[in-house]
Amino acid sequence: MNYIKEIEAFEDWLEINHLPATAQLLWYKLLVLCNRAGWAEWLSVTNQALMAKIGASSEKTLIEARNRLKQAGLIDFKTGKKGQPTKYKLFSVEEILQKIHCKNYTVKNTVLDTVNNTVKDTVKTTVKSTDIYKHKQETKTEINIENVEPKGSTTDVQQQTPIEPTLTAKELIAELTRFYQEVTGSSDRKDFAYVGGLYNKYGYDEVWNAIDSLKMRILIQPVEEPKSYLAAILNKKSFGKGEKNGIDRGFSKKLSSNSEQRDEAVRKFYSKTLE
Fold first, then answer.
1. Are 106 and 185 in the same domain?
2. Rg of the chain (C-alpha set)
């Protein structure tokens, strides 16, 4: 007997026949035991063991369930002597349906097997004959960021020498966008396009550092226009290497340890920058 075909045949049999739930469960448990026993013709099982498997609280429940299976022609059993296990014989439901439906059921299963085998062989052949390549991006890539959503992309599999996975420009922009939205609390769909423009102009590292500076600024005081503030940081950084986190060394020296003076200094500096 075939384990899967027997289950499918049993479900088909239930479409036109009725069995109590306990009897159905008992049939499944007997099928599992027969499969583990190598499809022996007769299987010996104690009542206590089967009661535990089907969750029966009394022996009467088990007896009623197995009697229903025998009346339906699905099993046969021989009760043992006192203290001895009962022997069970499981009939093939697939063969039972073949006798009822003559050739129809056999043809149905043959067609399904043929289709499944054909599909599996075709898929295997196609996968083996298809070369899958992965191109590693060495430099910053310009992409069209209009109407693009920040989504993850699937990394192709290289069949030959394994190399370290490289993120695409789209994935890098998506990562920057997620960081920006975490910092600002924004959920605007246009954020991806805005951050993508900054990425194309300044590169990944510069934009990440600028967003990190924005994060530190928001911790000090809320920023009403985070995009303008972010652009000001990047513009400031592009003038030279004397900056740190969007604020140059000269300005950093002006910041007082007093929180109120520091807030006021930051506000005045960036107000002039944004004008």
1. no
2. 36
Q: Cβ-count burial of 197 within 10 angstroms (0-12 exposed, 13-18 middle, 19+ buried)?
A: middle
pLDDT in tens, 219-250: 888 888 888 888 888 887 654 444 444 444 44
Distance, in Å, from the CA atom of 104 to the CA atom of 211, rounded to the nearest integer, reads 69
Lowest mean pLDDT among 37-41, 52-56, 159-163: 159-163
Express as a percent the part of the chain with pLDDT over 70. Answer: 62
Look up residue 209 and give its amino acid. Answer: N
| Claim to verify: residue 7 and residue 88 sit in the same structural domain | yes
User: Mean pLDDT for the chain?
Assistant: 75
Q: Where are the beta strands (DSSP E) in 23-98?
A: 43-45, 75-78, 86-90
Of 91, 117, 143, the domain-final residue: 117
Q: For strand 243-244 and strand 75-78, is the pairing parallel, antiparallel, or unpaired?
A: unpaired
In this prediction, residue 238 carries a pLDDT of 55
Please tell me the total count of domains within the chain. Answer: 2
Closest CA to 196 of 186, 205, 207: 207
151 contact partners, CB below 8 Å, separation of at least 6: 174
Q: Collapsing DSSP states into helix, strand and coil, what is residue 205?
A: helix
Q: Give a yes or no: residue 130 inside a domain.
A: no
Written as six digits, the tokens of 17 are 């026949």
The H or E element that residue 247 is part of is: strand 247-248
Average pLDDT over residues 183-196: 90
Q: Are 53 and 65 in contact (CB under 8 A)?
A: no
Is pLDDT at 87 greater than 90 in this prediction? yes
Residue 80 lies in a domain: yes
Domain that holds residue 249: 169-274
Distance CA 152, CA 165 (A): 14
SS3 87: strand
